[in-house]
Specification:
The protein has 263 residues and is of the alpha+beta class. 44% of the residues lie in helices and 20% in strands. It has 2 domains: 66 residues, Winged helix-like DNA-binding domain superfamily/Winged helix DNA-binding domain (Arc Repressor Mutant, subunit A, Orthogonal Bundle); 172 residues, GAF domain (Beta-Lactamase, 2-Layer Sandwich). The strands form 2 sheets. Strands 6-5-4-9-8-7 form a 6-stranded antiparallel β-sheet, sandwiched between helices. The chain has a 3-stranded antiparallel β-sheet with strand order 1-3-2.
């Protein structure tokens, strides 16, 4: 378990929360021990403190821990105050109704993609992405669309954090291949997922940019190779870009101002 070094007690406690959440189900203490860098007594102390604070909940009948109500409340506050989802909702609804395909709204969470909202297609597809899930940036259309418009320093740091695990035969396998792809995306204003993350799943994606060019998020339309092809998705780009502009305009005024007014 990484991510807590140098952050003291708070960082260690948060890493335990991450560990519990990663199971995706209620988890027993013995399961946490098997995957924890902490001694048993230390881990138990963190788990008890988090439970006492409502960040974890304990089911005495099953002997399991799960994310607590207080954590859920904080998550809802973060979603409302820091996520693009609330302001984007009507625009996603309208785009989904017009296109009938799967729509994804995402933001970058450090070096990964966080899906913050999703609209299913008229004929839903089975795929990895759902609101709240984390995905790789280097092999998803929406991830690459956001990476392509980062400033150079941030991009360099983010590329270094990519795993370059090969999910399919089409997955970009190294930093040079990714950078070449990002250059094309920046020139065109949109990018593709060419079955890079999941076989048979393709998408076209655009960045959501503030007036100053800051990356606020990304927007994609996803389909399958059985229904369409990249050329078919490419024809949707003007409509997707217009929706991205509407979201950016609303978000910039409401939650993501480029400049803070002086007092």
């Amino acid at each position: 378990m990484a991510g807590y070094s140098g952050d003291g007690t708070v960082g260690k406690a948060l890493s335990v929360l991450d560990q519990v959440a990663a199971f995706g189900r209620p988890v027993r203490f013995v399961e946490l021990i098997d995957d924890s860098p902490f001694p048993k007594a230390t881990l138990y102390r963190f788990v008890q403190s988090l439970t006492n604070q409502g960040m974890l909940s304990f089911d005495p009948e099953r002997g399991t821990y799960a994310p607590g109500v207080r954590l859920v409340r904080l998550a809802h506050a973060a979603w409302a105050q820091s996520s693009l989802a609330p302001v984007a909702r009507p625009f996603l609804d309208a785009l989904s109704e017009r296109l009938g395909e799967t729509i994804h709204l995402a933001q970058l969470d450090h070096a990964q993609v966080l899906y913050v909202d999703k609209r299913n297609a008229a004929r839903p597809l089975e795929m990895f992405s759902d609101a709240g899930k984390i995905g790789p940036a280097y092999c998803t259309g929406v991830g690459k669309a956001m990476l392509a418009f980062m400033d150079r320093a941030t991009l360099d740091e983010t590329v270094e954090q990519q795993s370059f695990h090969r999910f399919t035969d089409h997955t970009l396998s190294d930093a040079d291949a990714l950078r070449a792809e990002l250059t094309k995306i920046r020139e065109n204003g949109y990018g593709f997922d060419r079955e890079e993350h999941e076989p048979g799943i393709i998408c076209v994606a655009v960045p959501i940019l503030s007036e100053a060019g800051r990356v606020l998020g990304g927007l994609s339309v996803t389909s399958s190779t059985e229904r369409t092809n990249l050329a078919g998705l490419e024809r949707l780009v003007p409509e997707i870009q217009e929706t991205a502009k509407l979201i950016a305009r609303e978000a910039s005024a409401w939650r993501f101002p480029d400049r803070v007014a002086s007092s």
